[in-house]
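Appendix B. Raw example, untouched.
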Amino acid sequence: MEQLNDDLPLVSILIPTYNRLKYLKRALDSALSQMYPNLEIIICDNSEGAETKDYIEGLMKTTSNVFYNKNKENIKYIGNMRRCLELANSEYVNFLMDDDLFAPQKIETMMAYCLKDSDIHLVTSPRYVINDDDQAIAPYLMGLQLEKDWIGEGQELLKLSIQTIDNFIGEPTTVLFKKSALKFSFGQYYHHEFIVYSDLVTWYSLLESGKCVYLKEALSYFRRHQSQTTAESEKDWGGELRGFDEAAKLADVASLHHIFKTRVEYTQFITNLLEIYSVAFKRLITEKGEGLQIPSTYPRLMYDLLSRI
């Protein structure tokens, strides 16, 4: 595919969608309003019915850089994210979830850093939180709040995030990244597959090498609303504790691949992880009492975590 602008590299905006045309229209408007001139916008559609297809095909008659893929069947959240990446024709990509928004300067601001240094694998920023009506809601801003843009080694950001099991790096909409730097498929990290932490482990894959940038300026909008269920029905919480089994997988990766250089660092990581989930356990005990059903695999997971210290 020829680039739309020979002076700047092509960037792919990847929009996975599922039965949310109301929000998709707004997301697309924010993509089409980008100040960066050389873009392709790829929509991968898991929707039922033809409503989304009819709208996008109408838009494509007047817009040359929008491309549409209708999946033959619902390939679920992870499958659709991977399909988006397969269709991307560019080196630099940025997901745009169908209910989120970009600030007009997002791609231009982030690409300015990538164009200066090809070793940058990932650029991210804080993000605003909005409601169904695009109005700001608490906590208003998510992510690190910095006084100036930060540039550093990817492993620094990886270690800081994994120590706290905290995705301050951002949801898929937030991050622009270099596709060739991905070591694994979206949602895969070494020999484990993730759903709850699928975006986070994808960032870890990118951050294991190269540099990253964390901007001080918020450049995207993360929407919270009642129909926010793109992947919820596909995410097996393992009973009542969101992602506990996947946190154990992260511990396994950290141990086998020596993400932490010392035993003290690894022990602190395990301690932080157990503290996070002990709070959840206590809450569930209070809420459910004798009715609490702990999955049979959890005692073993807990033992495995402690035995690695």
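End of appendix B.
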